[in-house]
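We emphasize that the prediction below concerns an isolated chain of 231 residues; any contacts that depend on oligomerization or on bound cofactors are therefore not represented. The input was used exactly as deposited, without trimming of termini.
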Amino acid sequence: MRYLTILVMIFIINNLAYSQTHEIGGFVGGSNFIGDVGSTKYISPNQLAFGGIYKWNRSPRHSFRFSAIFSTLEGVDAKSDDARRTQRGYSFDTNILELSLGIEFNFLEFDLHEDDSSTKSSPYIYSGISYFSLDNYFFNSSGSIVDENTTSNIFSIPIVLGYKTTFTDKLIAAFEIGARYSFSDEIDGSEPDSNQLQDFSFGNVNNNDWYVFTGLTLTVTFGRKPCECFF
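Result of the prediction step, given as a token string:
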């Protein structure tokens, strides 16, 4: 009986490990920052963003998703429609590598294992948790950037809307716009990390920073038909 139980467990684990559908591919597009420095436009890509993406499709309606996206977040007061910011003249740019993990939900059935060869498409929404590290800095009284020589861990909530479609039975393309609400007001240097530097804070201290990735994803599918599961 013990050996039978072991054989059954091996069979179940083997099926769980290999009877899923996976996607892997890349993301390319642009980024823009929304905060106390630079443009106040919500969707206005001004820097290149690119990275990789992986999805574990658990059903025709939802997937677990992981991505790693590299970009430069930039804010330039001279490009703002706000006259006060234009006159102030601050600017910054900081490189980030965002790691994101969460769940993607399809509004329509997106079953890649249907026998017909028809094109499949669906709008979708993605959310979860994102993370990157940031070298802290602030603006001194002359408007120059000063490095604090400290690092902060920045977490954010992604709110991504997109539309995807199949090119072939193995190739999927999507366009998405994803805003990230961060749990920090430090990205643009408007709130120094050190309490001793709070005199150099500026802007709306009640609003945290946002950033947006807009672009295309292209993924390739592999794996067998998903198992029937409850999550």
